[in-house]
Amino acid sequence: MSIRKFLFPTTLTVHTGERALEYVDGTCRRVLEPGRHRLARRAQVRRVLVLDRVETTAPQDVLTADGVTVRVTVAIRWAVSDAQRYVESAAEPLTFVYLAVQVALRDALLDLTAEEVARRARRTLGATITDAARAAGEPLGVAVRSTLVKDVVLPHELRAAYAELVTAKARGQAQLEVARAETAALRSLANGAKLLDDHPGLARLRLVQALPPGSRVELVTPEA
Description:
The protein is an alpha+beta fold. The protein folds into three domains: 2-49; 53-154, 2-Layer Sandwich (Tetrahydropterin Synthase, Chain A); 160-209. Helix content is 45%, strand content 29%. It has six helices and ten strands. The protein has helices at residues 83-88, 93-109, 114-124, 126-137, 156-198, 200-210; strands at residues 2-5, 11-14, 18-24, 27-32, 35-38, 43-49, 53-56, 60-63, 69-80, 142-153. Strands 1-6-3-4 form a four-stranded antiparallel β-sheet. Strands 7, 8, 9 and 10 form a four-stranded antiparallel β-sheet that branches. Strands 2-5 form a two-stranded antiparallel sheet. Strand 3 and strand 4 form a beta hairpin. Helix 5 crosses helix 6 (200-210).
């Protein structure tokens, strides 16, 4: 937001994506939309950006239902919806939105465990936090488009424990696959052995096939 003061009548161009407030003797005379406008004598102009923007809250330590402290940041997409209210209602309007987001976040996480927060925070908390932010921002001329739980950081000890759990599961799965392969191989060998026992001729044929190239086979007739 920028401020300019004009001692004599002049014109002002308001660009797309902004609004201008024309003050005369300390009172807002009008809100100027994009276009070219003639200003009054002694006018003071405040330009206000109304394009969408994204702000991220500072990392906040929040206690979960199981007593674990997690660090959470929230991204807020917002824009100025009413330029005059935005300028005149508060010195820092967005701080009220930040506060509403932080309170809503704390209230929501009180009912979730650390594991649930890590897995479902982005999907389940967005609507609750957005509603709280919109309610806080609307009287101040701030339109909150959406909010997003950006980062959820678990304590180091808990992250290490989860990493060990994932590693153990992966190792167990690998061992299970090896055991399945060995069982399938043994089953195949057992079936082959039974087939050779039931068909001696087939057994002799497999024996011949297994001999090195150039080997000679002599048939021995059993003595009577």
